[in-house]
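note to self — DONT lose this again. spent like an hour looking for the file last time. sequence + predicted structure for the chain T wanted, 72 res
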Amino acid sequence: MTAQIASCIDDVLKPRGVGVVVDAVHQCMTTRGVHKRGVSMVTSRMTGVFRSDARTRAEFLQFVDIRGARAV
């Protein structure tokens, strides 16, 4: 889903780069099986300048307050 959002933004707007971060809770983790509360998964997708320039990527991740998110 994260990659699809980034791709759609890139295809439509044609920016120099796209950064998408999704922080989501998977319901099977909280209601079935392991029953863990407060568990979330963070995924990210960086394209263009966000992928090639570490400073730009770090600034973006700091802005959205995601520490340690890994670009895929």
